[in-house]
Amino acid sequence: MIEARIRMLVRPGRPGLDVEFRAAPGITVLFGPGGAGKSAILDAVAGFIRPDEGRILLDDRIVFDAPAHVSLPARARRCSYLCAGYALFPHLTVRQNLNFAVKHRPRLERHRRVSEALERFGLKDHAANRPAALTASERQRCAVARAVIGAPRALLLDDPARGLEALLRAEWHALLRQVRAEHEIPILVATQSLEECFELADTTLVLREGRILQSGAPRVLSERPASLEVARLLGIFNLLAVEIVELDPQRNSSRVRWQEHALAGPYFPGKLRGDRVWMCVRPDQLRALPRLGKPGSNQVALPLMRAVELPASVRLEFPGEVAVELSRAEFERHKQHREWLVEFPPPALRVL
Amino acid sequence: MPVDWFALWLSLRVAAVATLASLPPGLWLAARLAGRGPRWAVAAIPPTVLCYYLVAPAAPEGVLGLSETTAVAAAMLEAIPLLALLGGAALGAVDPACARVARSLGASGWRVFWRVSLPPALRPLLAAVALAFARVLADIGLTLLVKQAAR
Q1: Interface mutation target, options B94, B98, B104, B123, chain A, most CBs of A under 10 Å
Q2: pLDDT single digits (tens) A177-215
Q3: Which domains does chain A have, with CATH numbers?
Q4: What is the predicted pLDDT for the residue at B105?
Q5: Are A80 and B105 a contacting pair, CB within 8 Å?
Q6: Lowest-confidence segment of A4-8, A62-66, B146-150 by average pLDDT
Q7: For residue B104, which residues of chain A lie inside 8 Å, CB to CB?
Q8: φ and ψ of A307, to 5 deg
Q9: Which element (helix H / strand E) includes A206?
């Protein structure tokens, strides 16, 4: 378990940071754009930088406490750190790389641990090779093996999958899931990739400009983004500027006006009539039908601007920044149509 | 005619001792300087100037009007900035992530330097040492000349 409260003041060339979080055993993803403070958090937990204020606990052991002037050096914290490119020691063989991480243990145990790790990560045949002679897949296995061989208290991964091709990335994710299953430790992963966030995260912290905007399971984020900022950062939503014209808590219904169209939605707690708000709905929650007759209830007639082929579906883009995802088969049936009806299912509509 | 090897032997000896003695402070500075870019202009000070100010007034009399220790000290003053500058560039070229990872794996600063940062930079470091030796050797004559002139 990691419990951290980290504050860093703004300095020239470095944005400020003010976060507080707990990371239970399992994978916690730090998601955010560049400069959001993801790496700074990892550096502070690892002990590479010293926050201005705050307190960091690792398994109830204080590793940093600003008021008490406690700051354990990185080597005493037992947090394994890994970054893009893996930083395998180029002049050492795979075996020596692994050995490096268990140097402080008795000789026999060291030998046993290294042999076990070589076996478990499928590196037995490459033990005598230097990193340059390994394939990318072997390199990442070696890096993970080196990171966990010393039984660390936490694993800190600074976007190691950045720029990996799809196959390696899938392998990397499998590797991390294996580590999660075998070690009961918190794993912090900094990433800019939403895909990775959904793939791996037990919990996600959405960061921006040194602050945590929202935390929770990835599913929660995609279903209930806490704010417009989060919705924008995730980048998977249609965001429509609407005005609330009617609110009825009794019947759990509301009416909003978007451009010249009126849409029905659920009751929005905490909002007032006349509020101008952002309505947020995912492209896969909307439905698109070719326009054959008059628009039905909660349907809006829109001309199709563009159809974008996605790996498994087609995204239809309409004016007003509305996008709808459609299965490919369905789109193929209607692709000659220019005019479409976009249906907004009321339960899916949310306002921010 | 028998050749007098004295001058060559003395120069080699002084240069070798000076280079070796410059290694610890030079490497220390190099490690501090690594990855920061060459801010040190000291290496650019002409040896004539260095010798004139440092050797001429202070040196006690010895062989050739100059004690060997003083000659070594003067040579070291030349070698250290060179080692620091070139060594710093050599060490700076090593992936800094390696040092961070090593620290997170429980290695002390000393161990990180000897086992992680130094080995990949060994070739350029040896080149730096060779260069420092060559420059020191080439400038020993100058040290003597300046001493003579100052008398």
Answers
A1: B104
A2: 999 999 999 999 999 988 889 989 999 999 998 899 999
A3: 2-232 (3.40.50.300), 237-244+276-351 (2.40.50.100)
A4: 92
A5: yes
A6: B146-150
A7: 46-47, 74-75, 77, 79-81, 156
A8: -120, 125
A9: strand A203-208
